[in-house]
Amino acid sequence: MPTSVNPVPAGFHTVTPSLTVKRAAEAIEFYKKALGAQELMRMANPDGTIGHAEIKIGDSIIFIADEMPMAGCPQSPQRLGGITGTLYLYVPDVDGAFQRAVAAGGKAMGPVSDMFWGDRHGSFVDPFGHTWSLSTHVRDVSQEELQEGAKKFAAQMAEHAQRKSA
Q1: How many other CB atoms sit within 10 Å of the CB of residue 38?
Q2: 6 inside domain
Q3: For residue 9, what pLDDT is reported?
């Protein structure tokens, strides 16, 4: 009699980020130092690049791979000249985690601050071009507070953009 197999492997969540970087081996070491990542496995290509690796940060697994020249394979943010997403990571102590990430080589995008949605939050760009948002949830907010905060935040961002373009 066949056994039932869980469609989501043990240890994984329904969505698993997969990052393409230049210098994946260096990226793994950075994530260990900056974010406390644990390396779970690594598969090297014949040329020494990493075809697939898995790291664990908190309770989440993230795939890491070097760019590959084959058509249709993902490219790194450096090659593309930008990113299309951000990794949002909840941590118990955002201030300490942010300081470690920047000390390890991440570029701060601004200071850690309390945000209208109830998180203490700071973002950085890692040396491989990916943006990470680190947060600690510090207070619950109602939908009304969230909507009001979003309006104020949007107005502040518009004002900032106007000043910057002037």
Answers
A1: 12
A2: no
A3: 84
